Amino acid sequence: QKDLIPFLSLPDFPSDKLLTSSLYQIYLVDCIPMMIRMQLSDLITVDPKDEYPMARMMERRFVIHVGDTNTGKTYQSLNRLAQAQSGVYLAPLRLLALEVQESMLARGVNCSMLTGEEEDIRPGATHIASTVEKLDPHRRYEVAVVDECQMISDSARGFAWTRAILGCCALEIHLCTAPEGVEILIQLIESCGESYEVISHTRMADLTLLNKPITLSDAREGDAFIAFSKRRVLQFAEQLRQMGVQPSVIYGALPYATRKMQMERFLRGESKVLVATDAIGMGLNLPIRRIIFTRDRKFDGQHNRSLYPAEIRQIGGRAGRFGVYDEGFVTALMDSEVLWDGFYAPTEPIRKAMLGFSDLVLRVDHDLLEVLQVWNSIPAIEPYQKMPIDRYILILKTLEENAIMLSKEETLRAATIPFDERDEELMDYFLLYCEQYLLKKTIALPHRTKPSLDGLELYSQLLDLYYSFCRAFRQPVDLDWLHTEKENTALQINELLLRELAQKGHSCKICHAPMPLDSQFRICYKCMTKKKQHP
Fold this sequence. Notes:
Elements: H1 4-8, H2 23-43, H3 53-56, E1 61-66, H4 73-83, E2 87-91, H5 94-106, E3 111-114, E4 119-120, E5 127-131, E6 140-146, H6 158-167, E7 169-177, H7 182-191, E8 195-200, E9 206-209, E10 223-226, H8 230-242, E11 247-250, H9 256-268, E12 273-276, E13 290-293, E14 297-299, E15 304-306, H10 309-316, E16 327-332, H11 337-344, E17 353-355, H12 368-377, E18 384-386, H13 390-401, H14 408-415, H15 424-438, H16 453-472, H17 479-498, H18 525-533
Parallel strand pairs: 1-7, 1-8, 2-5, 2-6, 3-5, 6-7, 9-16, 10-12, 10-13, 11-12, 13-16, 17-18
Antiparallel strand pairs: 3-4, 14-15
């Protein structure tokens, strides 16, 4: 009865349900979320900026570098970073973090590198290049550079840019952004009561839209063909090989060491053209003369949709490299109003900054899964929007279904380990590692499965998962073995790509568009339809 008194006296207790539902049902459905919400409201401050007291005690100054791609905004920021006594570079991609580390080392700056899957921590390093998620908000720097800040609105990763802008403990912070990101960045900086200046950057190489489609046979040195999946990248690469044009390939599933090898082939001129996913739009510096879109639609993880104007310009802007090509060109393999109109269409300013949950959720005395669900239901103040937590919920439920009883802090740590939770084999290894950790066993080394391209790419992801899990749970890592395996796997994947052992597709004999690997037809559906209409 004593326990019932605080329960029945809760504000907004749904007394009207007492006639239709049991106390237990009311407790589960209404009162637990209500109690969690009350505790969360007490713990979590109204304004997200106040979650970073160390940053709030500093007098930080911001420099916002605004410009399209290939305008030198990141280059100028890195020049300032190299002059600082201490500094951090926050990248959207592992490959960019590595590129900046190498650039800093070449300038004589002792710079470490840290990503979710790999690290190179150097004794006495004054600088660090890392992916934006790996920012340490408790470490002080003289200068910070945060790249590709328009990513702040990205539903999956935008929270990391919000965290960096609100919480980075640097006296001078350089934010590099596309024009659509300026307003939201200023809004966040002003909410912190801090000073800023805006520097506009213009392209040093002209960019021209060629609004007439070309064919694959028109491929020239310095061309980059943009596809939106690994399968189509490999299909186009194979068609180019058959035409006697040697390509380099870049797509997300490649280990970043292999991506670097492929980029270096293109830089050295060993391959004349590049076939890549839209990942090259995110700051990779390559001597590209023409960007050629192979499609005007992409699957964004939820929907198959038309490209946005901002994406078209971000990717297309990679054409033209000052000092190599004084003019860049953008075109496509098909006639597309989406591309022609989108290239010139005005870009809407970003209105929302994605917000992630903090470790304060651990202080709520309820099941973590329930706490996260309630956290997600509490509206964020303007201009913030809460990140989707579907991935976290899936991982927490999977741990629960497999009776893996980690503490709340350990569960949250496990849920933030970067891996593709949709891949069955990766999930199996993740659950195995959780069980081995609980049983105080040595974390098992992953095993290679198939020698195919898919098998080697999966093995590379397993190596990343092994490293990330061990680091997250402070387990010993065989770094020498890991480094050797990663290097060998990257080399083998590169050799597979060079030896043309990737799955071969074929192309439509009329329009030369890639055909599905299992297609029995010689012409594509569009050409087949036209042929029926105009025999």
